[in-house]
Amino acid sequence: MGLKIILLFLSYAFFIYAPDVYSLKYCNYIFILFLITVIPFIVQTSKNKNYFNFHLFFLLSIFFTNFAYPLFIYPFNPEYFSVFSFGFNQNIITKATALSQLAVSSYVFGVSISTNKNKKRKEILYVFSKGLEIFTINIALFFSFIFCAYVIYTAFNNSNEEVLNTQIVSVTIVFLVIAILISLLNNKHELYRSPLKALLRNKKLLATCILILLSSIWFGDRGPAIQVFFIGMYFYVTYIKKISLKTLLMLVVFGMFILTMISYTRGTNSNLRSGSLSGTVSEAYNQMTSFNTFWDYGMDLIGTNRNLFIAMELKEREGLLYGSSYFPVIFSPIPGLPYFITTSIFNNTPDELSTAYIITDYTGIKDWGMGTNSVGDIYMNFGTLGVIILFYLFGYYIHKLSVQRDIYSILAYALFFGLVIYYPRASLLDQLTLIIRAIIILYVMLRISGNPRKIIK
C-alpha cells in the first residue's frame, strides 16, 4: 500500500512538472513509472492463474490509447495514422501522457484500497425456479432473433451504416447476460462436474450467443461481438474453468486479427456484407501483410489519443464543463427523461453535451465521429482533481463488484467487463445507464416470479 501511495504522488509530480513542449526523454521517464505501477499490480491481480481479469485488459487498452503514440509513433511519424493529420497542439503531448499516468496510478490505488477493505465474502447459493430459467433463456433467444432481423434490415436498406443502434444492442445484451447469469447460478454443480456437457445441453443459450456474434461480425460492427466475447469469457473463467496464460495469449492474437479484419474491410467491397468470407479474409490478409509496424493492429485505440490532446486544449482555452456531460446519467433510468431535462436546462440534447460531440465539433468533421477519451472526458469536466478522484473510484468499485457474490453485483460487473477495452476511449460512465436499467429489469423479473431462495455458506 505504501508503494502505491508513493507512486501516486510521483505521478502527480510528473504531471505538475511536465514540460509544455514535447519531450521524448520525459515521456520515457513517465513510461518507466507506468511499468513500475502496472507490472507488479497485474502480477498480483493474476494470482491463482486468474489471467483473464478486468484490470489486465483495461490497463492494456489504456497503454494503446494513451501511451503508444507519444512513445513509439510520434517521434518517427507524427501523422502515421490519418486522424493525427487533422491537427492538434503537439506541445500538450507530454503533459497529456503524464496525466494518463496519474489516472493509471489513481485507478491502481483505488483497487488496492478496495482490496484491503475487502473481507472474505460468504458464498451465496441462489436457487431459481426452472420456469424463470427457461423464460429468461427464451426471451434472450427472442431478442437475438430481433437483433439478427434488425442487422439484416439495416444492411440491405442502409448500406452506408457501419454502427448498429446502441439501444437495440443494449437490450439484447442485457437479456443475454440475465439469462446466462440465472442459468449458471442454477446449474453451478453440474457445470463443475461436466462443463462441456452442461454447455452443449443448453442449446438455446449457445444459439443466442452465436447469433449475436455472427450477426455483428457480418455487419461489420465489432461492439456487440466484443461485449458477448468478454462477458462469455468472464462467466466461463469465473464459474467453469480458468484458462492458461498460453490460451489467453492465443485468444488475444486471434481477437486482434478478427477485429483488424473487420476494421480494414468494412466500408469496402470486400466486407462480409458485400462479398464472401474467403474474399474478406483474403483482403484483410493483404492489408495486414502490408502493415509497416505492429501498431497498425491497435489503430482504433491509438487514434483516440488525439482526443485527449484536444480535450486538454479545450479545457485550458474554454474552462471546465463542471459535469454537464454527465448530467443526463442522473435521469437515465427513465427513457426520454435525459433528453427532456437537458434540452430544458441546457438547450442541448444529451449527445450535444457529450465530450465526444464537443471534440468532433471542434475538429470540424461533422460526418466522422471522433469519439472521446476517458482521461480527457473527465479532465474537460472536472480538471486534474476530477481525474484522480474518478479513476480512484472506478478502480475501487470495479474491484468491489468483482468480489461481491450477490446477483446484482455479478450482473453489473459482467456488463462492465463487456466493454473493458472500450472504456479508455470513452467515458467511464458510458455503461452506467445500461447497468441501472439492467438491475431494474432483473429486480422486476425476480419480484414477479418470486424471489430466489438464497443459501449462504
Average pLDDT number = 87
- Shape assignment: globular
Strand content: under 5%
Oligomer: single chain
Number of domains: 3
Which SSEs are present, and which pair or pack?
Layout: H1 2-16, H2 24-45, H3 54-73, H4 93-117, E1 124-127, H5 130-157, H6 166-186, H7 188-193, H8 195-201, H9 203-219, H10 222-239, H11 245-265, H12 277-289, H13 299-302, H14 305-318, H15 327-330, H16 337-345, H17 350-353, H18 355-363, H19 374-403, H20 407-418, H21 432-449, E2 453-456
Antiparallel strand pairs: 1-2
What would the keywords be for this entry?
69% helix, globular, 457 residues, two-stranded antiparallel ribbon, 3 domains
What can you see in these coordinates?
- By secondary structure, the chain is an all-alpha fold.
- Helix content is 69%, strand content 2%.
- Helix 10 crosses helix 20.
- The protein is globular.
State the gist of this model:
The chain is mainly α and 457 residues long. 69% of the residues lie in helices and 2% in strands. The chain has helices at residues 2-16, 24-45, 54-73, 93-117, 130-157, 166-186, 188-193, 195-201, 203-219, 222-239, 245-265, 277-289, 299-302, 305-318, 327-330, 337-345, 350-353, 355-363, 374-403, 407-418, 432-449; strands at residues 124-127, 453-456.
